[in-house]
């Protein structure tokens, strides 16, 4: 990055939040952003304490996001972009305030808590000149870029099968932590439990790599833990346009799994296999040849992976670097926007449309499951 | 084995067959059987040549299984048991001849090619005093016995999820080999392609370990290779009695997979994970504790595994030993039968009922898939 | 095997022994041998009980190996070969009796307990027309044959490095079991503890695959467990003729290792990596290309592996099959001998010379270690 | 970090360097440092261009490190610390200039190119009030901290064996790249090739985790590539004070290895196993219990790992985070120094003494190898 860092604000991400800290590291790793303002909590005291802890200037530590949007938009050196890292039900209201003032939005997923909000947010984004970036961060892993490039290059032939799973165990039993509380609360999380929290990641990743469009799905959702209002496990069968089929399994009740996001794609000429927990490896089998282990930075990887690779092979880059890549892509797009230039076609980040698709995916899962796993189309 | 070996005949398994050789090794490994007669091919010349190659006496090398059944039943030292290793559509006719003459049958899976045959075979088995053993050989692996014992002991708590897959790649493209030909031919293989050939193994294994009874399923079957008459891939969602859910994926068109049979079971107290290609390992995670690697013969394994373990930990036993264990179990049951004793409850082998369940599973998959993956119950 | 099985006797391997049972299964798996006689224990009662348990005829169950050798040599249908599976210090005396009567010997390793015995046994073998086969069984694994063929074909280029280790943990603490007792007793085991028991396997395997001849070694041996008379851990640096270097580590006191035999060989064009505990896989990296996973029976494997492969890829063959391959090789050689034919060059089994090399290896380790790890040459 | 970032300068790390970029990311990830000055290349033009590319102010972009040290020391807001990331032979001269002006030094390893320089640098560091931090970055991995804590807690019992290896393949053949050129040039790299570049890392890591002090070593060094002046492979046997033994293997000519740094430590009560390429996992086997997989952030990990863990289990932290932890530790120490406080005992970073030990290790390897792998003591 030879340009000056982009001035960034943050909504949410106060002292006891988790994902805000991740966004801050991601924004910082490659020096593309400079965090200068924040409305870090809905509680004024926490907001102030959190701002101080992060070294924000007191006059740029806000008690609410609307005040931040209004004032920062007027400042000569106000924020150019904002990261929204609140629980889902706040995404829409917050994003709207910045979008309508021309401030770029980098928003955590899923897009919103409700489909109604999602549609309004799409409209708000479309009405704005500002960019909207959704942090489906797993698309930032170099070997995921590699996989996508290989599929696009036809290395796997005609795609037949997409198998994706995202399996965790942290909600196996009743959990009253803050992190668990909002994720299992329909008011704050939305229609989907595991489907919204991690299923959307899996769905997005499968689409990103395969390049396929989902036609319909059949979903069987469960809430295994007594009293849980949202799904904690989901089995989904998928039909893609063009004839490919797939399955998606997401679960938060499978003991022994931390963040078991795995993607396998098979065509008539080859297959690939990738695991998030060891993301520097991509298994590739051209049909009729021995299996090959492709590694981040290693021989046999192409331009798409190299573009987002920081260090040589054998020294693992991890989750934070993948997340940072989404921030870097946002930065490139924001700079192009600032300079009135076309952003390079290499720059890839999840958009508001991907966010809407994710909402439609959750909605379709819920609708299908209520109809005994009938096939339903994405709608919205 | 302190007793004399059991006299064994074989139907099918001639020179160019595959699974017959496996059965012969399995019968021999622990010295429990002595192969003394065979009707090894439907072509008389091949039958004779194959018998000679195996060192069978010419007068006990038969041109057809019926002749063998009739004569061996009359011999003083005639065969006590017969292994049937033909293509599926011959199983019924062959088994019937031996069962009705009191000769024990060890039969390859699936039970038959058609549901009608399956029902007739169940009747034949029930009408006979002879034993019927189906070689769902994967149930013979020590760590599968370990897993089953752990589930039964409650180590996983209440079972919620059963995820099983059996993935191969050898039919990814058009294949005209003998092995491929009959497996993709409805006349010889039956209703199911991948569902019959490997899906039944996966279904049986999941049931064996979990101890659960399938209530209904929703299946989406595909024939990806143009012109293929039977399914080469299947996605199945499962509902077990008592509320557990699961998925089963079987495929023969997923490049990079040889015999990727994997079983994962999760309860409210723990989870297990097992792969057939490295069968000496069983991953076990008690919820809230670190993952543990249990190994065949190693510390932390119990009586059920020890009973079928030949050599100490770290020296892998493989597929043939697992298969041999089914033969050993058959031998124990046959000896008990011979001696008029009750067979020990530890002796475990797949029965005719398991075979019928496998047929019902394939039938249900096909019925469900034709109805757009509607939920159907096993019937038959 | 189209020929009649070879008549086999056994010395050692009574009821409470371990390796005898392994030899019996190995002899039986492919039907090449028929066990018909035994001197199974040095205690007459145990010898008789063990023979009965194995179904041996009482008149061919002997109280001592010499009586067996004398009588069997005179029988019309006497044994053609004998398996010697006693503790090391008995190998020489037993083998001599059979060799001098023209009965082929299949002997467990290491060759003998003392170098003096080893030399006498070499002489006895050389003076006899009978064959001598040493069961360095790991050379029977298909992927080890594959590795050897690749090295010989020049796939790795000029060999520079040979890294081999054989690591166990069962002697980590004081152990008074029968298995442990004789292995840690110089009288019965010989000069070497871990070096003799497992170091010889590692040394033999490295030589077998690399095709290299050891020039000298520098060894640092330890007996970590107080009171242990023999080494339980050894670090060895090796210099091969032609300039290749290597290390060998054997240990029986490394908690978490069962039978961790691993071989890595590197040349100027490529490298390979193999683990005994998952023996169906061989990693191969041609320098400058992605790593490839070669599998037993899979694409990319050659004739040498195929020759000793029983079943298709993905269904693991294990330790017993590898062991059986040594027996099969012995059978082929014995048949060729019987028929007065030259045995095929494909037939590979460890010989008396390999056994002597193993003894020289242990001797050199002990000599070097006493001289503070000075470089010493193999001698003997 | 609630405090203001520490003002950092950098010597070396210009546009075409590798490790400088790593240091910059490491300094930035957790926001503890702010890069404000640099003497980034020995070529003035490159120095200026590199400074501009990093957004440094032109008046703080220096042509040489001495000028930087002099001026920055006088500035009111001059740098508080400097990162030295040049080839090894420049370390001493550069570090001296900053140390004598009270500017803290964070220096890449190995300490210097020559032992003479190392001794002078130790004196310079001891004479200065400023801190000296050596970036043996692998000690920053959370699971390495976990391993160290477990050893210290006695979880492994009395340590007997330390096995460490660091294996690469990038120098398998003649390589004329800039990265290869200086590393294989005695003038710029020093006495050691692979021993200096990666062997010192392995040695340091083994010492850090085991807590053991090396007593003597026996080393056999090779330069396999014709014409190479420095070792590209080394086999080292080690004797630690107190009786533990070990081996160290470092290589840059082993095809198929990227950054294969692996550490195994065994005591009389348990063993651990860790691989740098998948650094979030630590295998732990209490003797007589099943092997356990400990994961970064997962259950079963203790305070030492938690202290340097950023994100929950299952989302891999990698090399850059581990490197950043060394920077964070430096920052904590620098802040304590600034505030006149004692730094917490939890703060762990490699010191000038570790650097001297590394030099002594290389020196001892070279001395031993020249004397045919005689045992030598570290000396300096």
TrEMBL record, chains A, B, C, D:
One of its GO terms (molecular function) is nucleotide binding. It holds the Pfam family GFO_IDH_MocA. Gene3D superfamilies: Dihydrodipicolinate Reductase, domain 2, NAD(P)-binding Rossmann-like Domain. Residues 144-272 form the GFO/IDH/MocA-like oxidoreductase domain. InterPro entries: Gfo/Idh/MocA-like_OxRdtase_N (IPR000683), Gfo/Idh/MocA_oxidoreduct (IPR051317), GFO_IDH_MocA-like_dom (IPR055170), NAD(P)-bd_dom_sf (IPR036291). Residues 6-133 form the Gfo/Idh/MocA-like oxidoreductase N-terminal domain. This is Putative dehydrogenase.
